[in-house]
Amino acid sequence: MSDVAIDMRGISKQFGPVKALDNVDLQVRKGSIHGLVGANGAGKSTIIKVLAGIYKHDSGNVCVGDKTLDVIAPASIEKDGVHFIHQDRLLVPTATVAEAVFLNNEPRRGFLLDIKRMRKEASDLIKKHFNLDIDANALIRDLSAAQQKIVQITRALACNARVLVLDEPTAALVAAEVSSLFRVLRALRDENIAIIFISHYMQEIMEICDDVTILRNGRNAGNVVASDSSIEEIVSLMVNRDTSEMYPRREARIDEPVLELKDASRTGHFEGVNLTLHKGEVLGLTGLLGSGDKQLLKCIFGLDQPDSGTIALNGGAVKFKAPGEAVDAGIAMIPEDRRAHGVAVDLSVSDNISIASTARHAIRGFVNKIFEAKLVDGLIEELGVKTPDRFLPVKNLSGGNQQKVVVAKWLSCDSSVYLLDDPTVAVDVGAKVEIYNLMNRLAGEGKAILFVSSDLEETVEMCDRILVIYRGKIVGEYKRGEINSDRLLAVASGGAPSGLREVS
Question: How far is CA 369 from CA 38, 261, 358, 363, 404, in A?
């Protein structure tokens, strides 16, 4: 066992009637990148919180190296060399790089901080491990998402980390930054550091991981060597069903225009955008981070207003001063940060799903509970929300299932236009297929869907048309089958592949 960095055996954890972990094993080798995957609610977050000392396991053993940990606390686990790189970077925006690297571990001269030494050692650590020159005096808020991730990792290395646990580390990164991060992780692996890599992106798991542990319903579903396995095999172990039809097909029946933008502009975000969305259509809008696609959705939904140009709904000009006006007009928006902007954690699953559509199941001011229950239960089943019943408080659900509840809330509105902002981010493969099926159902019912996604493959596979936005301008328009994900990335990056239709 001398080559094992983390050895968790027979870990069980129960929350009331819910058994989150049932005799789970997790062994991670030194000098390896170990993938941890599973559907939402499979137990990934729970077993990591047990390792972090946030949860106390009911049974089982935890060893770090050759040391058995009888009591685990967040402070003590770091002293044992295990550090956690969270999805939310949790860095102080106004701190310098040096201050962030040595937070709670500052070198001192007597009672005073040794600022000069902090700056030099922070720069030296970043140069040594990543071969990068990041100014130790730079403020965290001025760094890119990838640079902030590197600062987090450097902080762990400054504390002599032997194990790094990365939770969805690429969620906020663009493709070039992901490649840069992967180079860093491989270099750390070569330094005999063990890395636990948690991600819903199966392509990343296959690219970066040596071994993969798959959890399903709080139990071990399998352990595989990544190079000897496939995405299909891992996904089938995750969801216990065939997902060969990852992108379900439908026959598009596109009708008259329902939403139109003409010469819409908002200073600093987008300029001169012309867009027509039809009934029964899934229209993709894609661009790199900061291209203006997400700001455009906010202006349509009334969160912001364009400086110039017009927005028309069903042929009539509209100008929403607030999202409530857009909802009343038949527009629903599923936001990117669904847990922060779309869920009331203390309310039940039922209340969260039905809160935006109360008018649909109210008669003379009184809620029709029978209709409401039927609507909620139908969406719970269709989206695969893992909950014992609709009365459970949302705070008791896993993060992914909370996101499904927000999706269900807006789908309950029976709107005519749906604005979907990265609806499949941070949900598992099985849930993605369920969301795709829902999109197809809505489009088949004549709903109009404007679909923004950072996943170019799903954009290509799920959209009837795709508009590419680059630095605030629409630069390309493609029908289904005219472009693949690689060429789409080229257009979104400012280049236009030959032979494809381009907007001048």
Answer: 35, 39, 10, 10, 22
Cβ contact 449:282 at 8 Å: yes
- 176: left (phi > 0), else alpha (psi -120 to 50), else beta? alpha
The DSSP 8-state label assigned to residue 112 in this structure reads: E
- The answer to whether the beta carbons of residues 380 and 350 sit under 8 Å apart is no
Q: Which is nearest to 195 in space by CA: 161, 156, 164?
A: 164
For the record, the structure tokens of 270 come out as 């987008």
Backbone angles phi, psi at 460, to 5 degrees: -65, -40
Pick the CATH number of 4-239 from 3.40.50.970, 3.30.70.141, 3.40.50.300, 1.20.1290.10: 3.40.50.300
Number of C-beta neighbours around residue 274 at 10 A: 14
The domain segmentation of the chain, as residue ranges, is 4-239, 254-330+416-423+461-504
| CA nearest to 436, candidates 275, 243, 307 | 243
Coil, helix or strand at residue 349: helix
pLDDT in tens, 202-254: 888 999 999 999 999 899 999 999 999 988 788 888 877 655 567 888 888 88
CATH top-level class for 254-330+416-423+461-504? alpha beta
- Bridging pattern class, strands 316-318 and 308-313: antiparallel
Cβ(477)–Cβ(494) below 8 Å: no
Q: How far apart are CA 416 and CA 228, in angstroms?
A: 46
pTM: 0.62
- What is Dmax (Cα atoms) for the chain? 75
Residue 202 has a pLDDT of 82
Amino acid at 443: A
Q: Which residues contact 444 (CB under 8 A, 6 or more apart)?
A: 250, 253, 280
Mean pLDDT of the 109-134 span: 88
**DSSP per-residue string spanning 304-330:** S--SEEEEEETTEEE--SSHHHHHHTT
